[in-house]
Amino acid sequence: MRLIKQSIEKKDGSGSATLLPEEPEDMWHAYNLIRPTDLLRASAIRRVTTESMTGSSTSKRVQTTLTLRVTSLDFDPQAAQLHVSGTVAEENEWVKRGSYHTLDLELQRNFTLEKADGWDSIALDILKESIDQTQKAELWAVVMQEGLANICLVTNHQTILRQRIELALPKKRPGKPSADHDKASQRFYSTVLESLLRQLNMADLKPLLLASPGFTATAFQQYIKTTASTKADKNLSALVSKVIVAHSASGHLHSLAEVMASPAVTAKLSDTRFAKETALMDKFFDLLRKDDGRAWYGPKEVESAVEKGAVGRGGGALLISNALFRAQDVAVRRRWVSLVDKVSQEHGGDVRVLSSMHESGKRLEGLGGVAAILTFPIDDMDDVEGGEDIDIEEPTNGIEGRPGMNEDIEI
Questions:
Q1: What is the pLDDT of residues 23-74, one digit of tens each?
Q2: Name one GO cellular component term (predicted).
């Protein structure tokens, strides 16, 4: 994301920022940055109907700049499309104030955002992160089994299924030649590799995680090595050096969370944000199983722990889902911003805002979207009145692929 212009007052957070989305990941940042009641200004195509003196009417499409008071957002992570709906806040010659419209934010097209209640600490952090050019894809992953491969892009904020490949392989029969099976397997590996190479940026290779039950991932790694040697392909040779092989329960996408949590993988990917968050969630669940009073979850329990100063320096950590900051109710958003500020600024604790589109974030949502690792145990938290339900807003589409650029391949 490129920052075109910024005029935000430090005292009260008033003002606006003009941004230019340059790559699909920027749409995810925009989705988290834009909230209900904000003012969004961007170019739009609007159909306008005019009536002549004689009573005949004509309809035409005009391009104009609209300012909307945001009411809702719809994000498609696979297509990287963001649709923002709201009411027109500034009237012009084509559109009346108060009318309803949906803006389709696009790459390489500016938009200006003004926060209804000022730019709070969470919004400023998202803005800072969105314009940081180092925040890009962290690794690629192929979760596979015989005849099935899921090619995934893992970024700081999302796990996106880019392609699903399926091939019916003939079964191996004991005591009979397996030439047909071997030939089909080679064709399967060839198709997976071709599909993978179309996705990768060979000029900036990231780690490639291959995971499968049995020896499928190892066999695919060997296929890449053999192909690189046979073709004397320097790019493929470079790719081989980036490969990490791991075991998974299956070749389906949901197995990626288990793979990313394994010590062997987290050790090799220790510098990535996803690995750090996964390790932190694992630590939380370990403490929860020990039941030593240092791991608590739920809004009232966590808020009580923070009030007691138990989530501070010396190992305290607040884990909170970024979906909570997209709440429709302004008071609810302020509640969580206040909690984050108290931990990070007053108590010096570690705050991790987990992405709702990573497996670590999904695990956190199962706990209500907020949890804490305490610096010292608290055993009387059960005295806090019963928990409460939290509405967590999610994109309308999950991480499954869809036809088009991410279409499945069946051979």
A1: 777 888 899 899 999 999 998 887 777 776 776 777 777 788 999 999 999 9
A2: cytoplasm
List the CATH number of the domain containing 221.
3.30.420.60
Amino acid (one-letter) located at 188: F
Query: What does the pLDDT look like over 146-173, one tens digit per residue?
Result: 999 999 988 766 777 889 999 988 877 6
Same domain (yes/no): 171, 239: yes
What is the DSSP pairing of strand 81-88 with strand 100-105?
Answer: antiparallel
Q: What is the CATH number of the domain that holds 379?
A: 3.30.1330.30
Per-residue pLDDT tens digits for 262-302: 777 766 665 566 667 888 898 999 999 999 999 999 999 99
Structural domain of residue 29, as residue ranges?
2-130
What was the pLDDT predicted at 133? 54
